[in-house]
Amino acid sequence: MSRWMIAALCALLGGPAMADYHTDSLFNIKGLAIGQADDQQGLTGVTVLRFDGGATAGVDVRGAAPGTRETDLLKPENLVDKVHAIVLSGGSAFGLDSMSGVARYLEEQKIGFDTGVAYVPIVTGAVLFDLALGDPKRRPDADMGYRAAAGAKRQGLEEGSVGAGTGASVGKIAGMGRATKSGIGSYSLTLDNGLVVGAVVAVNAWGDVVSGNTVVAGTRSEDGKRFVSGTDLILAGANGEGFAGRNTTIGAIVTNAKLTKSQALKLAQMGHDGYARAIRPVHSMYDGDTLFAAGTGEIEVSNINAIGVIAAEVVEQAIHRAVQAATAAGGLPAASDLTP
After folding, report:
1. pLDDT-based confidence at 64, cuts 50/70/90?
2. What value does the CA radius of gyration of the chain take, rounded to a whole number of Å?
3. Would you say the pTM of this structure is higher than 0.90?
4. Residue 24 pLDDT > 60, yes or no?
5. What is the distance between the alpha carbons of residues 34 and 47, in angstroms, rounded to a whole number?
6. Smallest Cα–Cα separation from 152: which of 34, 26, 31?
7. If you classify domain 19-337 with CATH, what class do you get?
């Protein structure tokens, strides 16, 4: 997105026509802390976004094979209007266990809804399939989720093959043997009026990560030395091995804007434009693509469309950063290992 476009969006949002690009400005959002834990032998991990004071959240699931927890309560018509953590986890369906560990930690800290007999934290999240790399028997569990939640901090978010991105990979249209190692990435933007919009995305797509029409991480040639277009292979009749849910890109848009649940849902929906711009193909039968959106309520906003446009931009950039920061593992090279 060009600077003049950002300036125009700033004007629509009522602030000065300037914007500041950072990856760490995500932590300008008060009340947000992020923790990660992983197993480098199992090649799997967990990333926890904590909102100790609660955040209004929504979710949009577009892949055909999702694995999620507590997403129904995010629907605008349902009662609960705050979440205390969004969890991104590896381990496929087994990784859902990590979210119980997050809930246990938050309860111990008396974070959640005070029911009079117990503090009940609302923990939602999604999982991706990373069992094909590392040891498939070593999966995110409640203890790993607990450690990630306990270690949450407000600075220095690590990107690449860590946390939920530890075992992530992209470009599996020609099979796992020609895939590329991926990871988790973040990107955020701060406007001069104090509004922050950021994203954290663990990229584990069946398709390729692209910039325009150029594959920057994804399906590799038969000799493994360069990238080829998985889309072209599909059009030529290829059908990559796999089963439903063996991939999945999961992430969260976070802002300090004051949102209703309906507005949070709209942000998640518009944020999927970032998935579509950066991943090709996306939202397939083999993916469970899920995107959350959460607002902490610090800043009043009047133009949700403008925030949605920015949300799509930061999601796209977070996806690019995820593959740029990834390192080789499990027999797969990272994009940085291949000569352009």
Report:
1. confident
2. 19
3. yes
4. yes
5. 7
6. 34
7. alpha beta
